[in-house]
Amino acid sequence: MKPEQHDQFTPNSSYTSGLNRVEIQAQDDKHTPPVSALERWLLRKVIREIGDPPLRIVLWDGKELFRTTPEPKTGVIIHDRSALRRLLSKPSLNFCESYCSGDIDVEGELLTFLEIFHQCRLTATADTGIYKRRLADLWGRSNANSLSGSRENIHHHYDIGNDFYRLWLDTEMQYTCAYFPAPDMSLEAAQAAKVDHVCRKLRLQPGETVVEAGCGWGGTALHMAKHYGVNVRAYNISHEQVELARQRAREAGLANQVEFVEDDYRNIQGEFDAFVSIGMLEHVGVEHYRELGDVINRALRPDGRGLIHSIGQTQSAPLNPWIEKRIFPGAYPPTLREMLGILEPWAFAVQDVENLRLHYSKTLEHWLARYEQHEAQVREMFDDEFVRAWRLYLVSSIAAFNTGALQLFQVMFTRPGNNDLPWSRAHLYADKT
Amino acid sequence: MKPEQHDQFTPNSSYTSGLNRVEIQAQDDKHTPPVSALERWLLRKVIREIGDPPLRIVLWDGKELFRTTPEPKTGVIIHDRSALRRLLSKPSLNFCESYCSGDIDVEGELLTFLEIFHQCRLTATADTGIYKRRLADLWGRSNANSLSGSRENIHHHYDIGNDFYRLWLDTEMQYTCAYFPAPDMSLEAAQAAKVDHVCRKLRLQPGETVVEAGCGWGGTALHMAKHYGVNVRAYNISHEQVELARQRAREAGLANQVEFVEDDYRNIQGEFDAFVSIGMLEHVGVEHYRELGDVINRALRPDGRGLIHSIGQTQSAPLNPWIEKRIFPGAYPPTLREMLGILEPWAFAVQDVENLRLHYSKTLEHWLARYEQHEAQVREMFDDEFVRAWRLYLVSSIAAFNTGALQLFQVMFTRPGNNDLPWSRAHLYADKT
C-alpha cells in the first residue's frame, strides 16, 4: 500500500490518518472464539473510567461489540484478540502501541477521536483527580532527570537526526510553540514573532548578556544576537543539536556573539542580564524545580529579567504514558502553580504570564502538514511504524491543546523590588521601529 | 502645634511626616535611670533580626544609644522607657503603636525609613523564611474570615465613614490599585483606566452579565454598566458601602442594570458571563480559597471569563501585625501560587497575569497627597492618633510596594478548553473607538 502524497495539505483542513484508509484485512484469527463476557465487561469498564466517550467498538470479525451511545461519533477497530487483551491491561499505553503497529484502528478522523478522548478525560477528572491518581499509579515513574538520566532522555528524542526534523520544522528549526498574533501568518513568521515577543518581554538592550537553558538548534539564541545585539550563552545536552547550532552560528557570522555549550542547565556559569528557557522545562521534572530556581538565582543579576516558556496543564496529571515511553521519556508538563515552585524560594516576582495554548495547536497543524507532505521520506528514513507513531504524536498533541488538556505558559519575572519596569505592556504590541 | 497644610503637596515630592517636625520635647522621665545592658543587647538583637537596617537609636535624653553603621541613613527616637520595653516585646506591632501615640519618632523621611525596613526584611528573609516563620508564631492567627468574622472584619475598616474616604479617594471612590499606563495621568483617569483594562481583559460585550465579589462603593460595577452595557450583580458585606453604591446607581439611572446585594461572596447566586473581584481577595483568607473557587465555578458559564485583582507577595508571610490589628483585621496578601489554589481544583486555565505593583505605589502617593491636604478635617472627624495612624498606614504601604514587599496581581482565567480567545493581547492596548 503506497501512501498518498499530501501536497495539497494545509493546516486546518480535515484529513484522515493513513491507517484509516487501510482496508481492514481478513485477520488470521477470524476463527478465534468470541469475546468473553468478562473481556466485554472489562473493556466497558475501561471506557467508562475515561469518561464514557461516545464511540463504538468493532472487532476483528467486523462485528460491533458494543456502543456507548446510540449515535457514536467515532469508533475503535480492534484487529486481533491480543490487542484487545493488551488494551485491557494498560489502556492508554497499549491503545497507542497497537495503533502504531496497526493492530488497532480508528473510525473517522483521528483528530476528532483524540479530541473526544481528551474532552471526556478532562470532564471525568475535573475536581476529582481520581482517574489521574489511578493512572499515575498504573503508569509508574518516569525516567529520572538526573544529569545522566536527562542526557539519555534528551538523546532519545532530539538526536534521532537533524535531517528528520528539517523535513517538517520551520527553516530556523524551532521546535517549540510559535506565536501567531495574526493566525494566518506563516510558520516561519510566527517563529520569528515568538522570539521577538520574548525579547520584548525581556526588554533586551544591545550589549546585554543572555543565558539560555535548553537551546534546541540555536534558533532563539541566533535571532536574539542578530536582531537585539545581545551576547548569548546557550546550554543544551543534545549533541546533534549543539553541533548544528555551532555550525549555524559560524555561517551567520555570529560565533563571537553566541556561545553554544554542550552541558546541563545545572552547570550554567556566569551572571547575566536575562535568563530564558523556551521548551526545556517539560524535561526538567518537578523534583528538580528547586534546583533550577537556584541556577536562575545564581545566574541573574540584581536587575535581571527572566522568562520561562513551557507546556503546562491546569491540573497535575502524568503525561500520556505512550508519549512518555516512546516520544518524551522523563517529560512532564507542569501546572502554573508547580512552575511557581521554581521562583518562590528566591522571591522572584512574576511580572507577566501569557497562555499561548491555541498558538501551539496552530504550530502543530503546520508541522503536521509538512510532515504529511514528507511522509514518503520519513518512511525511507525509518519505517511504517515510525511514520504512524509520529503522526499519532502530532495529532494527539493538537487534540490536547485544542481541548485544553495541555496549556502553554510564558512566565516573565524579575527580582521582587526591581523598579525598572514599563508602565504598561503596550510596548509589546507597538509596531517595530 | 498646628499642623502645616500641604496644599502644594504632589505625588512623588518628598515630604516629612507631621511628627518628624515636632520638636522633641523634654520628657518627664528624663531622670529615669539609664538603659540597662540587657535592654541594649535585646534591642540590638531585634534590629539584627530584621536584617540590620542602617540606623541609629536615640533615647529620651537625646543621647544616642547605638548605631548599626558609621553613617546611618535614618534613626528611631524613643521618647520614654515604657515605649522601649514595648518595642522589645513585640517590635513590629509596638513600633507602629508607639509611633501613632507619639512615644516613638523617626529621624528623617518616614518613607525612607520604612523602605529601608522593608528592604532589610526582604533581604534577610529571602530563601530562609526563618524570620517570617518566627514572626508568624509571634503574631498569632488573624481573625477568622467566617461569615460572621468577615462581616466584623470588613465593618472595622470600611464602615468608618464614607465622608472620611471621600476626602482622599478619587471622585468615583475606588479604594483599590489604579492603572497608570501613563504615569502622569490623574487619579481619576487612572481609576477609570483600571476598570477599562479589566473590562478589556474580560472582553465584555453589551448585554452580558457580570457578578462582582466585593464591590466597594460600586465604582467598578457602575463603570462597567455605563460604558460596556453589561448587567452587574455586585456583592459586598459593608453596609455603608452598599447603601452609597445603591444611591449612586439610582442617581446615575443605572439601577435597572446594576444590583447591589448586601451579602457575602459565598452566597452568590446565578450564572454569569464574567466573574470579577477587585481588592476583595485580601480579606478572604487562604483557608477559604477552595470555597471561593467553588463559588466561581458555580457562578461562571462554560464560556465565562474571570478576573481576580489582589495585593500579593512573592513569598508567604503574615501581614504586618499592626496593619492586621489596627487597619485590616483578617487580611492576608497571598502569593501567586496561593491564588492558583482558587483556580486549580476546578481546572480553570490562567490566560493572563499582570503585576501592577508600581501602580499601587502611585495610587497610594495620590491618596496620601489628598490625605495630607485634608489632615485638619481628618483630625476634626477623629483625633491626632488617628491622623498619625492613617499616615503610617499609607506611607508604609507605599514603602511596601516600592520595595517589592507587596505585589499586585491581576489574574485572568477561563475554563481550560475555552477556545474563544483573542490571538494576542494587542486589543488591550488599541485606542478606544
Automatic annotation (TrEMBL), chains A, B:
Pfam family, one: CMAS
An example Gene Ontology molecular-function term: methyltransferase activity
GO BP field: lipid biosynthetic process; methylation
Superkingdom of origin organism: Bacteria
SUPFAM superfamilies, per the entry: S-adenosyl-L-methionine-dependent methyltransferases
InterPro entries with a match to the protein in the record: CFA/CMAS (IPR050723), CMAS (IPR003333), DUF7884 (IPR057206), SAM-dependent_MTases_sf (IPR029063)
Swiss-Prot/TrEMBL keywords: Lipid metabolism, Methyltransferase, S-adenosyl-L-methionine, Transferase
Keyword Transferase: yes
Domain DUF7884: 43-116
Gene3D superfamilies according to UniProt: Vaccinia Virus protein VP39
Sequence similarity: Belongs to the CFA/CMAS family.
Protein name: Cyclopropane-fatty-acyl-phospholipid synthase
Organism name: Candidatus Tenderia electrophaga
